[in-house]
Amino acid sequence: MDYKKAKINFIETWGVLGSQWGINKTMAQIQALLLVAPDPLTTDTIMEELQISRGNANMSLRQLIEWGVIYKKSVAGDRKEYFVAEKDIWKWSHKIGKIRKEREINPALDLLNEIVASKEIGKTEEEKEFMKQIKELQSFTGTVSALADKLFLSPKGELLLKLIKTLL
Amino acid sequence: MDYKKAKINFIETWGVLGSQWGINKTMAQIQALLLVAPDPLTTDTIMEELQISRGNANMSLRQLIEWGVIYKKSVAGDRKEYFVAEKDIWKWSHKIGKIRKEREINPALDLLNEIVASKEIGKTEEEKEFMKQIKELQSFTGTVSALADKLFLSPKGELLLKLIKTLL
DNA sequence: TGAAATTTTCAGAAAATATTGAAAATTCAG
DNA sequence: CTGAATTTTCAATATTTTCTGAAAATTTCA
What we know:
By secondary structure, chain A is mainly α. Chain A contains seven helices and three strands, in the order H-H-E-H-H-E-E-H-H-H. The two termini of chain A are 32 Å apart.
C-alpha cells in the first residue's frame, strides 16, 4: 500500500468507525485528515480533500472544536482560518470520553436514582421485582459512572496507565 | 412516580440511551421491557406494549437473541414462543462489549497494522510524519484492544471487579 | 395429512440524519 | 468607512436507517 492509498484508506475507515461510534462520518473524516496532515489546513482544503460542501465542513469543524479534538490556528499573512488536530490521542480520547459519559451515562443514572427513590413503588410482588431489577441496574450504572469519572476526570492518561499495568 | 410511569419512563429512556450507543431504539426498548417483566412475554405482548409492528418485533427479537441478551423460552401448553431477558447485567454487558469490540476495534487495528507494515511508506518527510501518527494510533488502539479482550474474554465480571477495586 | 396458528421475510413507506448550496452575516485590509 | 474575502446559517434535498404490513414459510395439533 502506498502513501496516497494508505491515507485515503485511513480517512475512509476512520469515517466508517466514527459512524459506528455515533460520531458522524464527516466529523470523523475531518479529524482523521487533520490527524495525519503535516500542516494546518483551511476549510477549502478540507472541502476539496473530502469532497464535501462548505456548510458541512463548517458545521463539522465547529463541533470538533467544541469537543476539543481540533483547534483553530491563525497563520501569519493569511486571512483564512486554519485548523489543526489535537495529536495526543490520550488527550482527545479523554475529552470525547468525558463528554459522552456526561451525555449518555448520567441521564440513565438520574432516572434510575429517581425510580429507586420513589416511595410509592414496591407494594405488590411485581413492583418489588421491578425495583430489584432497577436497583441492580442502578448499582451497575453507578459503578460504571464512577469508573468513567475516575478515568476521564483525572489528568491525562494517568489512571488509565495504572489500569493497564494492573490488567495487562 | 408510580409504578406504571416508572416502567414506561424506564423503557423510554433505555430506548433513547440505546440509540445513542448505536443500538436501535426498538431493540433497546424490548430489552428494557423484558428486563423488568416478571414473566416471559410473547411477541404479541411486546408488540402491544411497545406499539410496534410484528416485523419490527420479530427482527429486533432475533437480533437480541443473536447478541445473547435475551432468550427464547417455551411455556408448557402454549404454542407461542416466549422471551425472557438475561437479567445478569454483568453477563449481557459483557456479551455486547465483546461483540462491539470485534466489530469496531478490530477492523481499525487491522488497517493500522497493515499501514504500518507497508515498506513503501516513509521515504519523504511527510510520509515519515504520517507513519509516526499512524503508529501512535496503532499503539493506542492495540492497548485498548488488549484491554477489551482481557475484560470481555475473562469469565463474567472477574477482571472488571479487580479493576474497580484498584481504581475506586 | 391438512388447516389453523405462528413465525419469518422483505419490498415499500416513513422517519431520522446528514449534506448541500446559496443568501446573510461578519471580518478586515486599504 | 467600503467592499472583497471569509465564515456562518439554515431551508431544501438527499441519504441512511428504521419500521410496517401483508404474503410466504413454517410449525404443530387434531
